[in-house]
Amino acid sequence: MFAVRPPASAPWPGDVDAQLLIKAAELADTSAGFTAPHPNSACLLFNGKDIVGSGVLYGQGTTSAEVQACQSAREAANGCTAYLNLEPGDCHGDDTAILSLKQAGVSRVVVGIRHPLQHFRGRAVSELRRSNIAVDILGETLPKNVSTEQALKACQYVNAPLLYRSSLRCPMSTLKYAMTLDGKIAASTGHAAWVSSKESRQRVFATRGRTNAIIVGGNTVRRDNPRLTTRQEGGHLPARIVMSRCMHLPEDAELWDVSSAPTTVMTQRGARKDFQRRLEKKGVEIVEFDFLTPKAVMDYCYDRGFLSVLWECGGTLAAPAITSGVIHKVMAFIAPKIIGGVTAPSPVGDMGMVEMTQALNLADVSFEQIGPDMLISGFLQPIPDLQLSVPDGLDELSVQEAESFTEKPTVISFYKAWDPMGALSNFSPHPIEFMNEGVLEHWPGVEHYYQAQKFKGVQDTLAMDVVKKIQEAQSPEEAAQLGRSLAMRRPDLVRADWEDVKLEVMYKALKAKFSKYSGLRSLLLSTSGTILSESSPCDLFWGAGREGEGLNNLGRLLMRLRSHFLKEEQHAEYEPKTSTMNT
Question: CMP/dCMP-type deaminase domain: which residues (predicted)?
């Protein structure tokens, strides 16, 4: 639990609403890097004098910030004002955040930004107002001044990836590079270790931990042989993506070791099929495109549910990435060194500009000294401001749009927990329980249970230890990472019958989840007559794949469970009722 409180003797001068929203945004940012990028939300409960409760969303599928804040405040929450940097909305069909505020007796809610995702946007605000709780929103009902503008920017910054994804249908992309004072990223020979300082590299490692994926080109793999890890103990490990049209890549590279982090090679269809097969045997994912471009890769990353991507490529790839419009932010580390050389590479290749008036200008530029280096950051494309146009009746309109299914689709897709049908995901925040040999077992969620069962009954200290760690993992992502990593590193520890039983293990967990929560059962039954498709573009066993080539086993199991529930309801409907009248 994170506590935020000013010194006891310090008053809350000036615009209290703006100050507390900035603190909420700062608190929300503390969860970045622990699990895969997710909506960053925090909640502060303020009684007019002190902050009496606080909470922050740790990751997808974990307890909401509002619930945590109300639990920490207990009775002191009654009559408080809740400060939320982001309108609640972490999983479709999960109303615990709103219910916790109502049940705690919160009298007012101040929201930094409305939720960028359309199926959440306005829903919580509308529900709170219907419950006679006053709701104020930055840029709408609060007066505009310097303080509120700063607060709005803070709330937008902490959820910039979500705003870019929602507005542009593209993950937020940041181009990172380190260069000398004379603009070189390597010597004429290609040697680049190290341009920047140790302190700057530590910042890069931390930045990697806050992103979904890191992208490099083939030249970087051949020249630098990078690992692209966070070099930190614990925390989120981003996917590593290599773009190479020709697949002329080294047979042995650090990136082909996928025991700790996944690697995907994106190439053009048909390139070096024999080499592709060798990489696939090592566990490297191969994705083929008819024509490999930065835009095509970002479309793929969007479909995969990514919120943010870090480009650590050389100038040859950086130039087309910028000109294609997929780079939103730049982080440039400038080292106080001069190396010279006409042929020494620069961070961005030729973009066809011949006059200085064609230069691209950065907005919201910031300067920060890191060790001996200077970090200059700025935006090539401003953070989308969804507050600029808020039509009348937005609350009611968004609720209607989210709930109206006048024409039921033939296929209902789901993937991330925050998707419109995200409650079907294994990463949704729904603990499960069931009896096992006379003992009631509790699991944080479906993914936790499934990953642990890979090693059930294996009499090995390492296997038994990881089962315990999986059950104690705070988020579904961490549970999945633990299970997948050990299974890949030590396949001999996976139970011998796993391939035969894993479908039934998953079905058991799904049945426990949808049986426990009546709302989830109703949601599943509402999909009757449709095909359920787990739209993972990379998991061809549980998901449907990019082009429907996957087995979609998770969707199939959910449809099987739906049929089971429908038969139960039909049986209950036609079962003769026993009279309770005296005869």
Answer: 15-124
Candidates 3.40.50.2300, 2.70.70.10, 3.40.430.10, 3.30.300.20; CATH matching 169-351+360-379: 3.40.430.10
How far is residue 341 CA from its own chain's centroid? 42
* CB neighbours of residue 123 within 10 Å: 25
- What are the contacts of 564-573 at 24+ separation with CB within 8 A? 564/511, 565/514, 565/521, 565/524, 565/525, 566/525, 566/528, 569/525
The answer to whether the beta carbons of residues 168 and 384 sit under 8 Å apart is yes
Residue 440 makes CB contacts below 8 A (sequence gap 6+) with: 433, 434
Which CATH fold would you assign to the domain 396-571? Tetracycline Repressor; domain 2 (1.10.357)
Between CA 91 and CA 360 the distance in angstroms is 39
CA atoms within 13 A on the CB side of 122: 19
In this prediction, residues 435-448 reach a mean pLDDT of 90
The second-level CATH assignment, the architecture, of 16-158 is 3-Layer(aba) Sandwich (3.40)
3-class DSSP string for 452-506: HHCCCCCCCHHHHHHHHHHHHCCCHHHHHHHHHHHHHHCHHHCCCCHHHHHHHHH
Most confident of 266-280, 424-438, 569-583: 266-280
Q: What is the CA radius of gyration of the chain?
A: 26
* Nearest-10 Cα torsion for 540, 544, 550, 554: 70
- What does each C-alpha distance from 52 to 82, 107, 111, 487, 501 come to in angstroms? 10, 14, 18, 44, 48
% of the chain residues with pLDDT over 70: 91
Q: Maximum CA pair distance of the chain?
A: 105
As a whole number of angstroms, the distance between CA 401 and CA 393 comes to 12
Q: What is the pLDDT of residues 254-303, one digit of tens each?
A: 999 998 889 999 999 999 999 999 999 999 999 999 999 999 999 999 99
Predicted pLDDT at 388: 52
DSSP for 220-248? HHHHH-------SSSS---EEEEE-SS--
pTM for the structure as a whole? 0.88
Average pLDDT over residues 243-253: 95
Catalytic-labelled residue, pool 26, 66, 127, 251: 66
pLDDT in tens, 500-527: 999 999 999 999 999 999 989 999 999 9
Bridge partners of 333, per DSSP, are: 178, 375
Is 66 noted as a catalytic residue in this protein? yes
